[in-house]
Amino acid sequence: MKLDQLLYESYGFAEFRPGQKEVIEQVLSGRDVLALLPTGMGKSMCYQLPGKVLPGAVVIVSPLLSLMQDQVAQLKKMGEKSVIAINSFMQPDERERVWKMLDQYRFIFIAPEMLVQPYVLGKLKGIGISLLVADEAHCISQWGFDFRPDYLRISEVLPALGNPQTLALTATATDKVTDEIQRYLKLNDPFIYVHPMDRPNISYNIRKFSDEKEKLEQLLTMVKNYGGPGIIYAGTRKKAQELAGRLLEQNIQAAFYHGGMEQQDRIFVQQQFQNKELEWVCATNAFGMGVHIPDIRQVIHYQLPSSIEGYVQEIGRAGRDGNPSLATLLYVDGDERLVESLVLDDLPERHEVELIYSAGAEAKQLVDQGLVRETAYRILIYWRERISMEGTLNQMELLKKEKLRQANTIRQLVHCQGCIRMFISASFDQETPVVPHSCCSFHGIDYDLFKANSQKPTANSMSSWQERLKAILPI
């Protein structure tokens, strides 16, 4: 059967989006593949359609529970029943039922931390895996070293799974990150597809202010004048909550979202946003993956992002419907100091390295005693198994320099004296894009394109969740 026919019969689409067919053809030919497709270009189709043809299961390693749940829901909506997400939130009886039926699932979503567990590997080994997918593969580089080292272990478990062919998918990656993805996944002579990452419908807006008060006033003006749906990114959890509170004071339907919230609360905010019950979400960079809302009109960075990759990932959530969207970065002199502090915060300190290396099998107790942070423990246990203490200290120094380099790129972006679109493309080693209408604040932005809709939900017009629940449930 031809791929176009299979696409239509399986999902009802008459044609592929750019890049999809080329990637799928290479996957079905048996090659390892690394594909860089911009946000909204349909990366998931690159493993969904092959999953209809390949003889064994497709295992998708995914970084976030919310992302897994969204992908499972999307597959089920398209009629695929043999799909499951295995995660630590499953009840024991539910998990046991899944293990017994594992060979009946065609698509299996799993977090890297669970994938590397020996018991889980044993179960997966028995079902026959045709394809392992590293979704959001940039996390292997950006999160693996200093946040979630189990990303770096993915290649180590491949032999236990029968060395299945590997597909790595991401929306943004510099040449350096692309090289690291290939190296840490041990891709064998991969086919690499890189689609131009430029999104002509997004206008890039950078505004500078003399003080914090002026910046906040401008934020509120933009929210009121140009409307949403929109996402406001803050550098800290406290700031995300503070900004949501300011919007609510202005009778604007908003909520905050960050990694310190309970999982259930995060899912609730995400669902409210997707259901148009919220117009704005004020969030840390924990928000965004798995959020498939085509008509997000604004993405505003109230504080600087920590890297150019993160910045492009976040603004890429705007305008997936192809209509004009606005990406705004607000800056006050000194904002970069917060970024430099945040990017270095999670890196293990020298005393933590020395404690972990001297503790032996009792290292986990150091976390319970408050002597070593949980994140530092995960990082250091990974490196302790591989290199000497001096080697780890050198590794941490290299990571520090890389983090500061990334922060410096953001500083250069803020103070860019030319086309912002061209600066971003050059940062990813891509060709100079065509300058569209309403390109950026350097070339000029047509703000009439973003005028707010007069029919917007407000905090007073929306009923509480208790009232909505009463309306649909009998008392």
TrEMBL record:
InterPro entries to which the protein is assigned, alphabetical = DEAD/DEAH_box_helicase_dom, DNA_helicase_ATP-dep_RecQ, Helicase_ATP-bd, Helicase_C-like, P-loop_NTPase
Q: Which SUPFAM superfamilies match?
A: P-loop containing nucleoside triphosphate hydrolases
Supply the Gene3D superfamilies for this chain.
P-loop containing nucleotide triphosphate hydrolases
Q: Which residues form the Helicase C-terminal domain?
A: 215-367
EC annotation from Swiss-Prot or TrEMBL: 3.6.4.12
The UniProt GO MF terms for this protein read: DNA helicase activity; hydrolase activity
Q: Which Pfam families match?
A: DEAD, Helicase_C
Q: Which controlled-vocabulary keywords does the entry list?
A: ATP-binding, Helicase, Hydrolase, Nucleotide-binding
Annotated NCBIfam families = recQ_fam
By what name is this protein known? Answer: RecQ family ATP-dependent DNA helicase
State the organism of origin: Planococcus dechangensis
